[in-house]
Input
Amino acid sequence: MGAETVLRLDGVSKSFGAVQAVDRASLEVGRGEVFTLLGPSGCGKTTTLRLVAGLEDLDAGEITLRGRPVASASRRLFVPPHKRNLGMVFQSYAIWPHMNVFENVAYPLRLRGVKRRTIRDRVTQVLDLVGLGGLERRSATLLSGGQMQRLALCRALVYEPDLLLLDEPFSNLDAKLREQMRVELKLLQRRLGITILFVTHDQIEALSLSDRIAVMHHGRAEQVGSPRSLYEQPGSAFVRDFLGQTVILRGRVDRAEIQSVAVTMDGALAGHTLAGRAAAGVAFTPGLPAHVAVRPEDIEVTLNEGPLPARNTLAGVIEALLFVGDRYEARVALGGEQRILLLLPRAREWREGQRLQLRLPPEVVSVWPA
Ligand SMILES: Nc1ncnc2c1ncn2[C@@H]1O[C@H](COP(=O)(O)OP(=O)(O)OP(=O)(O)O)[C@@H](O)[C@H]1O
Ligand SMILES: [Mg+2]
Output
């Protein structure tokens, strides 16, 4: 990595009894980066964050902050949390209810013995930054959910940590407020240039906030990359299915070339052939079972009039139609038991029973081993 590395995990493991919560996880976070750990419940996200924070000690591997080892199994090293210069906001952020807004933010500085005047300046500055300026004297319990969330952020930001650890910080907020906080955090992060290690199981949050994402699976970083590269070029079926929706169709490999694999469909779609690129560098042999995958939004939908073009096109019928505001969600029957979920633009009138023509452009189709 070109930029200075703020955080490095090298083969870090942690188990609780028989549960391997983190399993030889390795990753690097650069200065000014928003790096997200994304994965299903129980995959080890919070444990990883707690290891970085020093709230847990590791069983194996090493953690380095700004080039300084803070935890190492082989060196028997463990630097306590308050000497790691980290800011933290956890899911159940605790606002001190007996303190007003100002005191809540000032407290971490008082603990560090910062001078009164400096405290006043820094607290005022950071409250202004998140739009809480003017609320200094208000009791913290009288804030709205979004304001409390911002207060928790302020408290973590005020002593200018090298790294900000955020564990599902918006999970207590309703959908609207979550969206708003997402944008605010992004703007704040850009303005301050802070480095953030973010934890979420919400893919939209991860895709929209992150410079890079590590998709975690069973305690390991299964794939690391930019949101777009993970979405468009997932390296495994797990990453593919965890990020976004995927339409999967089953068949057998007909022809396999370097650039393109053609798959003949099974069952009710027998006779149709779909061509796409081989996923994740897999080599295919004709005759083997395969899965054809495509993102629903990449399928080109038109009304079915006349005969189907031969290649990469299927026929379907709208079986159920759900209006969800910005678009329609349609369950489309492809014949037999095969059904797929598609997104249809609101600009057109759709109705149940309508016959569709679905084109799956080869460049957005990927072929996977079954
Ligand atoms: N203190 C603990 N004692 C025993 N088991 C634990 C402890 N902390 C975590 N675990 C287990 O370790 C695994 C990873 O937990 P972790 O909290 O890191 O998951 P997570 O990815 O943060 O999940 P979620 O999205 O639900 O918050 C889980 O199986 C969990 O039950
Ligand atoms: Mg967690």
Q: What stands out?
A: The chain has a mean pLDDT of 91. Residues 5-242 form a domain with the Rossmann fold fold (CATH 3.40.50.300). The longest helix spans residues 175-192.
